[in-house]
Design brief:
The chain is an alpha+beta fold. It is built from 12 helices and 8 strands. The protein has a 4-stranded antiparallel β-sheet with strand order 1-2-4-3. A 4-stranded antiparallel β-sheet has the order 5-6-8-7. Bound molecules: zinc ion (ZN).
Protein backbone atom coordinates (compact mmCIF):
# COMPACT_ATOMS: atom_id res chain seq x y z
CA UNK A 1 0.00 0.00 0.00
CA UNK A 2 1.24 3.50 -0.76
CA UNK A 3 2.27 5.86 2.02
CA UNK A 4 -0.67 8.14 1.11
CA UNK A 5 -3.18 5.33 1.44
CA UNK A 6 -1.76 4.37 4.83
CA UNK A 7 -2.09 7.96 6.03
CA UNK A 8 -5.64 8.27 4.68
CA UNK A 9 -6.67 4.93 6.18
CA UNK A 10 -5.62 6.26 9.56
CA UNK A 11 -7.30 9.65 9.13
CA UNK A 12 -10.58 8.33 7.73
CA UNK A 13 -11.05 6.14 10.78
CA UNK A 14 -10.67 9.02 13.21
CA UNK A 15 -13.89 10.21 14.78
CA UNK A 16 -14.65 13.91 14.43
CA UNK A 17 -16.05 15.04 17.76
CA UNK A 18 -17.56 18.47 17.36
CA UNK A 19 -20.20 19.48 14.84
CA UNK A 20 -18.29 22.65 13.91
CA UNK A 21 -15.25 20.54 12.99
CA UNK A 22 -17.35 18.03 11.04
CA UNK A 23 -18.65 20.87 8.87
CA UNK A 24 -15.13 22.21 8.32
CA UNK A 25 -13.87 18.77 7.35
CA UNK A 26 -16.77 18.28 4.96
CA UNK A 27 -16.38 21.76 3.50
CA UNK A 28 -12.74 21.14 2.63
CA UNK A 29 -13.54 17.74 1.16
CA UNK A 30 -16.40 19.20 -0.90
CA UNK A 31 -14.16 22.01 -2.18
CA UNK A 32 -11.45 19.69 -3.45
CA UNK A 33 -13.51 16.75 -4.71
CA UNK A 34 -16.91 18.18 -5.57
CA UNK A 35 -18.55 19.27 -8.76
CA UNK A 36 -21.94 20.61 -9.65
CA UNK A 37 -23.90 18.57 -12.16
CA UNK A 38 -26.34 20.76 -14.07
CA UNK A 39 -29.76 19.20 -14.57
CA UNK A 40 -31.45 21.84 -16.72
CA UNK A 41 -33.98 24.56 -15.83
CA UNK A 42 -31.63 25.92 -13.16
CA UNK A 43 -31.54 22.60 -11.32
CA UNK A 44 -28.35 20.90 -10.21
CA UNK A 45 -26.99 18.13 -8.02
CA UNK A 46 -23.69 17.88 -6.16
CA UNK A 47 -21.24 14.99 -6.50
CA UNK A 48 -17.96 14.29 -4.71
CA UNK A 49 -15.45 11.74 -6.02
CA UNK A 50 -12.71 9.86 -4.25
CA UNK A 51 -10.70 6.73 -4.98
CA UNK A 52 -10.31 5.93 -1.30
CA UNK A 53 -13.13 3.80 0.10
CA UNK A 54 -12.67 4.58 3.84
CA UNK A 55 -12.68 8.31 3.00
CA UNK A 56 -15.93 7.94 1.04
CA UNK A 57 -17.57 6.13 3.96
CA UNK A 58 -16.26 8.68 6.46
CA UNK A 59 -17.61 11.66 4.47
CA UNK A 60 -20.94 9.99 3.77
CA UNK A 61 -21.42 9.36 7.45
CA UNK A 62 -20.49 12.99 8.29
CA UNK A 63 -23.13 14.22 5.83
CA UNK A 64 -25.77 11.87 7.19
CA UNK A 65 -25.10 12.50 10.88
CA UNK A 66 -23.99 16.14 10.99
CA UNK A 67 -26.04 17.83 8.29
CA UNK A 68 -29.68 17.75 7.38
CA UNK A 69 -28.95 16.52 3.89
CA UNK A 70 -29.47 13.10 2.38
CA UNK A 71 -26.74 11.50 0.30
CA UNK A 72 -25.81 8.13 -1.13
CA UNK A 73 -22.64 6.41 -2.21
CA UNK A 74 -22.11 4.68 -5.54
CA UNK A 75 -19.05 2.77 -6.73
CA UNK A 76 -17.78 2.58 -10.29
CA UNK A 77 -14.94 0.49 -11.54
CA UNK A 78 -12.42 1.99 -13.89
CA UNK A 79 -11.21 -1.22 -15.54
CA UNK A 80 -8.58 0.57 -17.61
CA UNK A 81 -6.84 2.08 -14.61
CA UNK A 82 -7.74 -0.88 -12.38
CA UNK A 83 -9.26 1.24 -9.68
CA UNK A 84 -12.58 2.17 -8.14
CA UNK A 85 -14.18 5.58 -8.02
CA UNK A 86 -16.50 6.26 -5.10
CA UNK A 87 -19.04 9.00 -5.67
CA UNK A 88 -21.05 10.61 -2.89
CA UNK A 89 -24.18 11.92 -4.55
CA UNK A 90 -26.30 14.68 -3.10
CA UNK A 91 -29.31 14.41 -5.35
CA UNK A 92 -32.10 16.86 -5.83
CA UNK A 93 -31.76 20.61 -6.10
CA UNK A 94 -32.99 21.31 -2.55
CA UNK A 95 -30.55 18.97 -0.83
CA UNK A 96 -27.59 20.06 -2.95
CA UNK A 97 -28.32 23.72 -2.29
CA UNK A 98 -28.87 23.13 1.42
CA UNK A 99 -25.56 21.29 1.81
CA UNK A 100 -23.51 23.81 -0.15
CA UNK A 101 -25.04 26.64 1.86
CA UNK A 102 -24.35 24.88 5.14
CA UNK A 103 -20.74 24.29 4.08
CA UNK A 104 -20.46 28.00 3.15
CA UNK A 105 -19.53 27.13 -0.42
CA UNK A 106 -22.65 29.09 -1.35
CA UNK A 107 -22.79 32.49 0.28
CA UNK A 108 -25.96 34.04 1.75
CA UNK A 109 -26.47 35.70 -1.62
CA UNK A 110 -26.56 32.23 -3.23
CA UNK A 111 -23.33 32.90 -5.14
CA UNK A 112 -20.61 30.28 -5.24
CA UNK A 113 -17.37 30.92 -3.27
CA UNK A 114 -14.23 29.37 -4.67
CA UNK A 115 -12.12 30.48 -1.72
CA UNK A 116 -12.35 29.33 1.89
CA UNK A 117 -15.15 31.04 3.85
CA UNK A 118 -13.61 32.65 6.97
CA UNK A 119 -16.47 31.54 9.24
CA UNK A 120 -15.84 27.86 8.48
CA UNK A 121 -12.22 28.04 9.70
CA UNK A 122 -12.72 30.61 12.46
CA UNK A 123 -11.85 28.25 15.32
CA UNK A 124 -8.55 26.50 15.80
CA UNK A 125 -10.23 23.07 16.09
CA UNK A 126 -12.03 23.63 12.79
CA UNK A 127 -8.89 24.74 10.95
CA UNK A 128 -7.15 21.44 11.67
CA UNK A 129 -10.31 19.54 10.67
CA UNK A 130 -10.38 21.55 7.48
CA UNK A 131 -6.80 20.48 6.72
CA UNK A 132 -7.79 16.88 7.41
CA UNK A 133 -10.72 17.06 4.99
CA UNK A 134 -8.53 18.65 2.34
CA UNK A 135 -5.87 15.98 2.78
CA UNK A 136 -8.42 13.15 2.62
CA UNK A 137 -9.91 14.65 -0.53
CA UNK A 138 -6.90 15.72 -2.52
CA UNK A 139 -3.76 15.14 -0.48
CA UNK A 140 -0.89 12.79 -1.07
CA UNK A 141 2.42 12.11 0.54
CA UNK A 142 5.40 10.50 -1.19
CA UNK A 143 7.13 7.49 0.14
CA UNK A 144 9.76 9.16 2.35
CA UNK A 145 12.38 6.69 1.12
CA UNK A 146 12.21 8.65 -2.14
CA UNK A 147 12.21 12.13 -0.60
CA UNK A 148 9.88 14.32 1.43
CA UNK A 149 6.86 15.70 -0.39
CA UNK A 150 3.28 16.27 0.71
CA UNK A 151 0.76 18.01 -1.49
CA UNK A 152 -2.86 19.10 -1.85
CA UNK A 153 -4.49 19.65 -5.23
CA UNK A 154 -6.80 22.66 -5.37
CA UNK A 155 -8.99 23.53 -8.31
CA UNK A 156 -8.62 27.30 -7.91
CA UNK A 157 -5.86 29.73 -6.93
CA UNK A 158 -8.27 31.26 -4.40
CA UNK A 159 -8.62 27.99 -2.55
CA UNK A 160 -4.87 27.34 -2.74
CA UNK A 161 -4.19 30.79 -1.25
CA UNK A 162 -6.62 30.09 1.59
CA UNK A 163 -4.90 26.78 2.27
CA UNK A 164 -1.48 28.48 2.27
CA UNK A 165 -2.83 30.98 4.81
CA UNK A 166 -4.02 28.26 7.14
CA UNK A 167 -0.73 26.38 6.82
CA UNK A 168 1.34 29.47 7.48
CA UNK A 169 -0.73 30.22 10.61
CA UNK A 170 0.80 26.99 11.98
CA UNK A 171 4.27 27.91 10.66
CA UNK A 172 4.14 25.13 8.10
CA UNK A 173 6.20 26.16 5.10
CA UNK A 174 4.30 25.53 1.88
CA UNK A 175 4.28 26.82 -1.67
CA UNK A 176 1.91 26.64 -4.61
CA UNK A 177 2.44 25.92 -8.29
CA UNK A 178 0.06 25.66 -11.23
CA UNK A 179 -0.20 22.17 -12.70
CA UNK A 180 -2.41 21.46 -15.74
CA UNK A 181 -5.81 22.89 -14.75
CA UNK A 182 -5.15 22.74 -11.01
CA UNK A 183 -3.07 24.51 -8.38
CA UNK A 184 -0.85 22.33 -6.22
CA UNK A 185 0.01 23.36 -2.67
CA UNK A 186 3.06 21.45 -1.50
CA UNK A 187 5.26 21.01 1.56
CA UNK A 188 8.82 19.81 1.17
CA UNK A 189 10.55 20.02 4.55
CA UNK A 190 10.31 16.96 6.74
CA UNK A 191 9.77 19.08 9.87
CA UNK A 192 6.84 20.88 8.27
CA UNK A 193 5.36 17.61 7.00
CA UNK A 194 5.54 16.14 10.50
CA UNK A 195 3.97 19.27 11.99
CA UNK A 196 1.10 19.03 9.52
CA UNK A 197 0.55 15.30 10.10
CA UNK A 198 0.56 15.94 13.85
CA UNK A 199 -2.10 18.65 13.50
CA UNK A 200 -4.43 16.47 11.48
CA UNK A 201 -3.88 13.49 13.78
CA UNK A 202 -1.94 11.07 11.57
CA UNK A 203 0.13 9.77 14.45
CA UNK A 204 1.00 6.29 13.17
CA UNK A 205 2.02 7.81 9.87
CA UNK A 206 4.44 10.11 11.70
CA UNK A 207 5.90 7.14 13.49
CA UNK A 208 6.49 5.34 10.19
CA UNK A 209 7.97 8.51 8.71
CA UNK A 210 10.24 9.08 11.71
CA UNK A 211 11.52 5.52 11.53
CA UNK A 212 12.49 6.01 7.91
CA UNK A 213 14.00 9.40 8.69
CA UNK A 214 16.05 7.89 11.49
CA UNK A 215 17.43 5.06 9.40
CA UNK A 216 18.15 7.54 6.59
CA UNK A 217 20.00 9.81 9.01
CA UNK A 218 21.93 6.96 10.39
CA UNK A 219 22.78 5.56 6.96
CA UNK A 220 24.12 8.97 5.98
CA UNK A 221 26.29 9.00 9.04
CA UNK A 222 27.52 5.51 8.33
CA UNK A 223 28.57 6.57 4.87
CA UNK A 224 30.30 9.64 6.21
CA UNK A 225 32.07 7.64 8.82
CA UNK A 226 33.36 5.04 6.41
CA UNK A 227 36.81 5.36 7.90
CA UNK A 228 35.72 4.81 11.43
CA UNK A 229 35.89 1.42 13.02
CA UNK A 230 33.00 -0.31 11.33
CA UNK A 231 32.15 -2.91 13.94
CA UNK A 232 32.03 -0.50 16.86
CA UNK A 233 30.13 2.02 14.87
CA UNK A 234 27.44 -0.35 13.76
CA UNK A 235 26.99 -1.45 17.37
CA UNK A 236 26.39 2.18 18.35
CA UNK A 237 24.02 2.58 15.41
CA UNK A 238 22.03 -0.57 16.23
CA UNK A 239 21.67 0.52 19.84
CA UNK A 240 20.71 4.03 18.78
CA UNK A 241 17.98 2.81 16.39
CA UNK A 242 16.54 0.69 19.18
CA UNK A 243 16.65 3.56 21.66
CA UNK A 244 15.13 6.13 19.31
CA UNK A 245 12.31 3.74 18.41
CA UNK A 246 11.67 3.13 22.10
CA UNK A 247 11.52 6.88 22.75
CA UNK A 248 9.17 7.38 19.81
CA UNK A 249 6.90 4.67 21.17
CA UNK A 250 6.78 6.40 24.56
CA UNK A 251 6.08 9.70 22.84
CA UNK A 252 3.30 8.17 20.76
CA UNK A 253 1.70 6.73 23.89
CA UNK A 254 1.93 10.10 25.67
CA UNK A 255 4.27 8.59 28.25
CA UNK A 256 7.17 11.02 27.73
CA UNK A 257 5.78 13.54 30.19
CA UNK A 258 5.56 10.85 32.83
CA UNK A 259 9.26 10.04 32.73
CA UNK A 260 11.40 11.21 35.63
CA UNK A 261 13.34 14.41 34.83
CA UNK A 262 16.62 12.48 34.52
CA UNK A 263 15.16 9.92 32.09
CA UNK A 264 13.38 12.66 30.17
CA UNK A 265 16.63 14.59 29.67
CA UNK A 266 18.44 11.52 28.33
CA UNK A 267 15.51 10.65 26.05
CA UNK A 268 15.45 14.19 24.63
CA UNK A 269 19.22 14.16 24.11
CA UNK A 270 19.08 10.81 22.26
CA UNK A 271 16.14 11.89 20.14
CA UNK A 272 18.02 14.97 18.98
CA UNK A 273 21.33 13.15 18.49
CA UNK A 274 20.77 9.82 16.83
CA UNK A 275 24.41 9.24 16.08
CA UNK A 276 25.99 10.42 19.33
CA UNK A 277 28.03 7.94 21.34
CA UNK A 278 27.32 7.45 25.04
CA UNK A 279 30.28 9.67 25.88
CA UNK A 280 28.97 12.41 23.62
CA UNK A 281 25.50 12.15 25.20
CA UNK A 282 27.10 12.38 28.65
CA UNK A 283 28.92 15.53 27.58
CA UNK A 284 25.66 17.00 26.26
CA UNK A 285 24.06 16.53 29.66
CA UNK A 286 26.55 18.73 31.58
CA UNK A 287 28.90 15.75 31.99
CA UNK A 288 27.49 15.12 35.46
CA UNK A 289 26.56 11.54 34.57
CA UNK A 290 29.12 9.19 33.11
CA UNK A 291 28.89 6.86 30.14
CA UNK A 292 27.58 3.97 32.23
CA UNK A 293 24.95 6.16 33.88
CA UNK A 294 23.66 7.20 30.45
CA UNK A 295 23.70 3.59 29.30
CA UNK A 296 21.72 2.55 32.37
CA UNK A 297 19.06 5.22 31.74
CA UNK A 298 18.72 4.37 28.06
CA UNK A 299 18.26 0.73 28.99
CA UNK A 300 15.56 1.76 31.46
CA UNK A 301 13.80 3.77 28.69
CA UNK A 302 13.87 0.74 26.37
CA UNK A 303 12.39 -1.42 29.13
CA UNK A 304 9.56 1.06 29.68
CA UNK A 305 8.77 1.03 25.95
CA UNK A 306 8.79 -2.78 25.93
CA UNK A 307 6.33 -2.80 28.78
CA UNK A 308 4.02 -0.61 26.71
CA UNK A 309 3.97 -3.28 24.00
CA UNK A 310 2.99 -6.04 26.39
ZN1 LIG B 1 -14.41 22.98 15.43
Amino acid sequence: MSFSATAKDELARKATEKDCCALAELAAFAHVTGHIELKGQGNFEFYMNTEHAPTARCMLSLIKTRTETGARLITKENRLKKKHIYTIMVEGYDDAKKLLTELKIFGRDGAMHFGIAPEIVKRDCCRTSFLRGAFLGSGSISDPEKGYHLEFVASTQEFADGLLNILSSYEIRAKSIARKDAVVVYVKESDSIIKLLTLIGAHSTILALENIRISKDIMNNINRAANCEAANYSKTVDASIKQVQAIMRLKEAGEMERLSPTLFAVAEARLNNHQATLNELAALLDGKVGKSGINHRLRKICELAEKLDE
